[in-house]
């Protein structure tokens, strides 16, 4: 029998990797959690935490969720403001689940990820290696070997929770960058941005020139703001858009925005990042490995939100790993069950979001819906319910929905 240093090596200590490790806390499995960074560390993101993120924490452990509810480095967010291409806006309240202080939160990823990471530091079955870059990953019939710095760690399974540029996917997986299924994004922190909703609504601005993407402004603790822009990489390439120039143009010249930034100051240089969006099904496992979160391309293509799905994939992976070790099955055929469960839980939402993203190619339709919702409270209530109910959200894809709006 071969000797193993660990049962499982998790590469990446973001929300997906930490969720997987935490979910395995009561099992007698020896785990190594490896990350190239030392926490706390920055992660370029919009920083919004949806109700689904909090729901996932409650499903993992109520004590963990309640500790997050008391976590000070966040602010409550009670709704969303949509800005149509013609400049009109619509405010929609989040539906607030009974056990939450708020339906959504906003917290810098430096703070939120550090919060999750601290929970893993307490677990006796997890060894943590931070500030260590994984150089290579190899798999064979006997196990996996992960080269970390000058040492080689051996285990039965390796988990790729290491983001969009996952080395586990690069060495063992099959997911390739496809511009039509990949978004380019920019983020810049500011202070002094004015005009936020008193209930800290997040803002999505869908303007001509950035469709089918959007510009965002999210309030943050301490009077700061997360400002950014995201677009499909295929559109950026086809239209030869300079995203940095476009971001600067929106901030300083758009009539809905420029006055809000007249006293604002940037706190950093513009940061760029890539989003592998979940707009097609992909193989996310194989012989002795699973891919989680961004490494598995599970980001919502309409909203760009990926934290909830990252945590959910970590939970699903942990349940699958328990079964794998109970049965001593680690091959690609057995691991396909992980793919099946992930897409059973997520594909309906991901598919609808992809279709909604395509509808953004019709700005007049967006303008029409915003106008009708502002004039009719029942439409606003319906749109609010659609934020969390994927079956209701599917109505947006049916021509009959817009005919009803037209004659309402």
Automatic annotation (TrEMBL):
What GO terms are given for molecular function? FAD binding; oxidoreductase activity, acting on the CH-CH group of donors, NAD or NADP as acceptor
Pfam families tied to this protein: FAD_binding_3
Q: Which residues form the FAD-binding domain?
A: 6-320
- Matching PANTHER family, A to Z? CONDITIONED MEDIUM FACTOR RECEPTOR 1 (PTHR42685:SF22), GERANYLGERANYL DIPHOSPHATE REDUCTASE (PTHR42685)
Name recorded for this polypeptide: NAD(P)/FAD-dependent oxidoreductase
Q: Which source organism does the UniProt entry give?
A: Marivirga aurantiaca
């Amino acid at each position: 029998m071969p000797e193993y240093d660990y049962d499982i090596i998790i590469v990446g200590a973001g929300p997906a990797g930490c969720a997987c490790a935490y979910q395995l806390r009561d099992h007698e499995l020896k785990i190594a959690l490896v990350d190239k960074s030392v926490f706390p560390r920055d992660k370029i993101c919009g920083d919004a935490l949806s109700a689904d993120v909090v729901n996932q924490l409650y499903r993992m452990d109520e004590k963990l969720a309640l500790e997050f509810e008391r976590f000070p480095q966040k602010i409550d967010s009670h709704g969303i403001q949509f800005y149509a291409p013609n400049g009109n806006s619509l405010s929609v309240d989040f539906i607030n689940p009974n056990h939450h202080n708020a339906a959504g939160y906003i917290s810098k990823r430096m703070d939120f990820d550090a919060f999750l990471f601290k929970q893993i530091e307490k677990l006796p079955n997890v060894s943590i290696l931070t500030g260590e870059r994984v150089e290579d990953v190899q798999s064979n019939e006997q196990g996996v070997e992960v080269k970390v710095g000058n040492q080689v760690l051996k285990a039965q399974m390796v988990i790729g929770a290491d983001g969009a540029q996952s080395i586990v996917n690069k060495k063992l997986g099959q997911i390739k960058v496809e511009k039509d299924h990949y978004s380019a994004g920019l983020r810049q922190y500011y202070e002094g941005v004015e005009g936020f909703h008193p209930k800290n609504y997040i803002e999505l601005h869908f303007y001509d020139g950035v469709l089918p993407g959007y510009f965002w402004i999210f309030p943050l603790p301490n009077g700061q703001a997360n400002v950014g822009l995201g677009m499909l990489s295929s559109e950026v390439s086809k239209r030869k858009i300079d995203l940095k120039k476009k971001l600067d143009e929106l901030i300083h010249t758009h009539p809905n925005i420029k006055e809000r930034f007249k006293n604002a100051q940037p706190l950093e240089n513009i940061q760029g990042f890539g989003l592998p969006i979940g707009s097609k099904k992909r193989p996310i496992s194989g012989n002795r490995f699973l891919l989680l979160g961004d490494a598995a391309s599970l980001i919502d293509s309409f909203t760009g939100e990926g934290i909830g799905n990252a945590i959910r994939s970590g939970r699903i992976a942990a349940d699958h790993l328990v079964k794998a070790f109970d049965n001593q099955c680690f091959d690609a055929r057995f691991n396909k069950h992980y793919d099946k469960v992930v897409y059973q839980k997520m594909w309906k939402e991901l598919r609808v979001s992809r279709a909604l993203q395509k509808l953004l190619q019709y700005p007049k339709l967006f303008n029409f819906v915003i106008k009708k919702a502002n004039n009719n409270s029942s439409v606003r209530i319906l749109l609010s319910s659609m934020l969390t109910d994927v079956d209701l959200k599917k109505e947006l894809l049916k021509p009959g929905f817009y005919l009803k709006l037209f004659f309402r």
